[in-house]
Amino acid sequence: MSVVRLRHPKGVSTIQINLNSDDQKVLDLQQAIFAATGIPPSLQDLKAGYPPTSLTLIPELPVTALGITKGDQLIVTEISGRQTTQSPPRSFGGQTTAVGVNPPNASINQTLLGRQALGNDYVQTEGGVLIHRVVPDDNSCLFSSIGVVFEQDMSAAPRLRQLAAQVTHYSPLKVEVAISCLALSFFSRPPEEYIQTILQPNSWGGAIELAIFADHYRAEISSVDIETGRIDRFGEGSNYSNRAILLYSGIHYDATSLAPTPGAPPDFHETVFPVSNRAILDAASELASRLRSQKKYTNTATFLLKCEVCGKGLKGEKEAREHASETSHVQFGEYS
């Protein structure tokens, strides 16, 4: 049996298959990929080599016809063309709900999608370069960053907002336990009010949502504060084996990924790492330090905001929180 590495929308996996036997068919490979990724054979697009080249998949042919060898990496993507995508149903509090369904009007401005970029800042590590992945500054940066690191999908923000709302609706106690270590009062407002708020595209995400996503993806999320270097670990203590890393500027989240070289295409980037890999976390701290030296952060105690609901001017996060508590207004824009 040979080990083949898969890079797919949910992360990185390995499968075992006999690549040297004519008795093993391409369909057998596809079924093994389906078990690891959830992408059915009829919707699989496989690429191999560098630069990645699509493989011709004829299920009846022997797997040897693909020319794959032990230790090769396959890039697995899902063939587009369907109107919506749906994740396998997941149970919350005894009820089952399809948490990955795009709502009918869930869309994202294609101009914003084009603003995703491989930042100019990166740190060299033994396994490659840890790169600053820039996402749009559109009030959904946390959700877009989560989409990048866990699903390789910049357009996932509307769906991830829906996920946060569904988890809160079906399992509020589970959410409250997940964030208890954050010393936040999750239900200072009724859950229904939180759900209505988080579904609004202009509402910012933060610690509560990071706790929800850490539990959903069964992975630690480490958020590195650029200004202070502090690392907040969501899901810490849950014995998760993997970790994703975000960068936080004070008012904006970006993603990180590990690439073989600075210019490597996104298909070759890793975004989820073993928790045991301390070197990656050290690299993320160094990356934050470089961004700090360039003043790429916002001091949340002094920055100026405007309430986009009533137009009131506010100074700093403290005044914004107080205003939100008094009025339930949660849509803010930064003064330039």
Automatic annotation (TrEMBL):
C2H2-type domain segment(s): 307-329
Keywords of the record: Cytoplasm, Hydrolase, Metal-binding, Protease, Thiol protease, Ubl conjugation pathway, Zinc, Zinc-finger
Protease recorded as keyword: yes
Entry annotated with the keyword Chaperone: no
Cellular compartments annotated: Cytoplasm
GO annotation (BP), single: protein deubiquitination
Taxonomy, superkingdom: Eukaryota
UniProt GO molecular function: cysteine-type deubiquitinase activity; zinc ion binding
Any one Gene Ontology cellular component term annotated for this protein: nucleus
Listed Pfam families: OTU1_UBXL, zf-C2H2_OTU1_C
Disordered: annotated span: 81-100
Reactions listed under catalytic activity: Thiol-dependent hydrolysis of ester, thioester, amide, peptide and isopeptide bonds formed by the C-terminal Gly of ubiquitin (a 76-residue protein attached to proteins as an intracellular targeting signal)
EC number(s) from the headed UniProt entry: 3.4.19.12
Enzyme class: hydrolase
Free-text function comment from the UniProt entry: Hydrolase that can remove conjugated ubiquitin from proteins and may therefore play an important regulatory role at the level of protein turnover by preventing degradation.
Protein name: Ubiquitin thioesterase OTU
